[in-house]
Amino acid sequence: MKLRISAIGKLKSGPEQELFSRYLKRARGTGVQLGFPTISHHQFPESKNTTGTIRKQQEAELLFSTTAKGNILLIFDENGKDFSSSEFAHLLANQRDQGAKELTMALGGPDGLDREFVGKANFSIRFGSMTWPHQIARILLAEQIYRAMTILAGHPYHRQ
User: Fold this and answer.
1) Staple partner for 27: which of 118, 120, 145, 158, CB 3.0–4.6 Å?
2) Residue 160 covered by a domain
3) Does residue 159 belong to any structural domain of this protein?
4) Span 52-73, pLDDT tens digits
5) Any bridge partners for residue 82, and if so which?
6) How many domains does the chain have?
7) Does some domain include residue 130?
């Protein structure tokens, strides 16, 4: 099953980009052997509209454009469910094992996600109760994907 990260906001060069890339590279290396042949990353600029509601709608259109009909959409939203790292790993494995071709993981911009877009998601997860800048949220996601791959591979990176 292909994995796709679709995010609003551009990662600037520097330590955040380096850390994100490092985790994504590790995840890709481990994921191939586990039935996750590609992990792609698509980023879109934040909407310039002055109205928050319209910004979220425009950004949702961009995020949804990377999700082909019939593919799984997993969003990260403050109202989503708390998942442990093991639960996240097993969600990915279960979708793969049920024959999903692709799973898109969507991260919204500073205003959050459009409610209609949220309603289209198959799964909604949150990174806890705290608010995170989108650059850090993207690093957290990349690390959790890598951690999921190591959990599924039985690698000792994840300790319980």
Assistant:
1) 145
2) no
3) no
4) 899 999 999 999 988 888 899 9
5) 126
6) 1
7) yes
